[in-house]
Amino acid sequence: MATTRRTQQERRVHAEAALLNAAAELVVEHGVRSLTLARVGERAGYSRGIVTHHFGSKQALLERLARSTQAGFVPGLADLPPGLDRLLRLIDGYVGALGDAGTMHRAFLLLWAEAATASDLAPIFRERDEAFRRDLRDDVAAAITDGDVPPDTEPDDVAVAVVGQLRGIGLQRLLDPRAVDTARLRHTVTDHWRQALRPIDVGGGDGHPYQIPR
């Protein structure tokens, strides 16, 4: 019985992955307006009924797609403590990953842009952006505590600016890949934030100026 349950679970995971990938492909190729459960099932090689069985509705499918595309986009961050180093690594890794963004992430960016005028998508992407900003705010707040960022820095403002910049670069990359050299740009953007968040050089308690990690 245990073996049968594991096999069923594996089949479920495989089917859901195939359906999400099919949905992402359709969004990239034809836009979210053309996305239907029937088309997703057909693209994945299943019936519409199995799409409904797994997700229940188009809205639930889009919510799952939005969550799954962001998971692990920048690897190697989970083991890093919040702080300036983690923030800069996230920025660098995000821009770098845009150079080889797969179908899932391209679909996320298109859906994110669509959410500005689509009431059914807006709540999903407001929640995803808030989660992203919260992660960035934690890094900035920790960096302030560590003395790596000026104490008058506003974590909320930094988070909004970083998310806007990263998402904007991603959309530009989708529109005109040749105009956005992510291999070079990642260093430019990361260095911009390293410099922007640098504390003013003043004497520390030990007589030495504050230094920002590089």
Automatic annotation (TrEMBL):
Keyword Transit peptide: no
Residue stretches making up the HTH tetR-type domain: 13-73
UniProt xrefs under InterPro entries: BetI_C, Homeodomain-like_sf, HTH-type_TetR-like_transc_reg, HTH_TetR, Tet_transcr_reg_TetR-rel_C_sf
DNA-binding region: 36-55
PROSITE patterns registered for this protein in UniProt: HTH_TETR_2
Key word Ligase present: no
Cited Gene3D superfamilies: Tetracycline Repressor, domain 2
Pfam families, A to Z: TetR_C_6, TetR_N
Keywords: DNA-binding, Repressor, Transcription, Transcription regulation
Transmembrane segments: none
Protein name: TetR/AcrR family transcriptional regulator
